Amino acid sequence: MWMYLGLLAALFLGLHNLCKKHAVQGNEVFPVLLGTISSGFLFVATFYVLAIFYPDDALENGYNFQQISWQIHGFIFIKSAIMAASWILAYQALKHLPITIVTPIRSAGPFFTFIGAIVIYKESPNVYQWIGFFFIIFSVILYSRIGKQEGINFKRNKWIFAIIGATFLGASSGLYDKFLIQNLSLNPQTLQFWFCLYTILILLIILTITWFPYAEKRKAFKFRWSIIAVGVLLQAADYFYFKALQDPDALIMLLSAIKRSQILIAVVVGGLVFKEKNKRKKLIPLVGIMIGVFLILYS
Hints:
Blueprint: H1 2-24, H2 29-53, H3 55-61, H4 70-96, H5 99-106, H6 109-120, H7 127-149, H8 158-183, H9 188-210, H10 215-220, H11 225-246, H12 252-259, H13 263-273, H14 279-298
Helix pairs in contact: 1-11, 1-12, 1-13, 2-3, 2-9, 2-11, 4-8, 4-9, 5-13, 6-8, 6-12, 7-14, 13-14
């Protein structure tokens, strides 16, 4: 069941990436990020308010919120700081690079999670899983060669380094999620509520320094419907992902790989919607990544 929940998370993440590309085009990154997290928080907060006034219904329908200690609040704040840094880097990269380049690089995230799962959680991959991960890494290298044809030099372009940094931080957060869900026994909605709240506070501090004082930046910001859609879709994806992690048999290395199937939506649909170049050439490494995911899933 946790694998099917992972696939649902991938579906919502793919749609989330398309909306995110639309939201950041020609826009200020920090206010867009704040808007997306805030809209997602309001979505989760609606259930939080319902749980306060109708606790029995919340418990019966599975959206009750836990009372947690200050120590656990501290652990959740660490996750918020990691993901805030990851999202800032990812949004900046997505603003300046094609979605058909950004998304496949993000698809290398399972490799970092794979290493962490072996070292930290002692998860044991088999031969087919090793082959699958090397398929993913090789395919990302192939994407880098295609990117050069679009004038993107992977060694000199700072936005490439930004998306690689975002991918590493995202993978670290994925490993940390297993600790929060399984070791601290947090349910998905409790983690989502406080995680969003702390991320909003972090972004407000950054915006107070970099955006709010500058009138020209505030005027340049364009509100789009996709900002709200990004937040809601991300919360839906996170919910299914955290539900999958609640299963004690769930392997974080496999869940991380399953989530990468979102690239089908981003590369195929995104390439058509945003009219990006070399769509056919990008299908070759896309197939490589999907073979890697397949080997991991069915090994």
